[in-house]
């Protein structure tokens, strides 16, 4: 099974940006976050939609 929920660090690496940039996108609501036991995760499906909308 592929990993569906990504950490901020993984998203930053995937997008080729810094972790603070990912946090800005989350705060602005550009990326959707999921809270899991106090930890922030980003759904890979939502991330792929974000990337597609940037084209």
Explain the overall architecture.
The chain has 55 residues and is α+β, with helices and mostly antiparallel strands. It has one domain. The chain has helices at residues 8-15, 19-27, 44-53; strands at residues 5-6, 34-36, 39-43. It has a three-stranded antiparallel β-sheet. The longest helix is centred in the C-terminal third of the chain and has 10 residues, at 44-53. The chain is globular. The chain starts with a strand and ends with a helix.
Task: Describe what is shown at a glance.
This protein has 55 residues and is an alpha+beta fold.
List keywords for this structure.
3 strands; 55 residues; alpha+beta
How are the SSEs placed, and which strands pair?
Layout: E1 5-6, H1 8-15, H2 19-27, E2 34-36, E3 39-43, H3 44-53
Antiparallel strand pairs: 1-3, 2-3
Helix pairs in contact: 1-2
Residue runs with pLDDT of under 50 for 5 or more positions: none
Shape by Cα distribution = globular
How many helices does DSSP assign? 3
- Helix fraction bin: 40-55%
**How many domain regions?**
1
Counting helices, strands and paired strands, the structural category is alpha+beta
The number of distinct β-strands equals 3
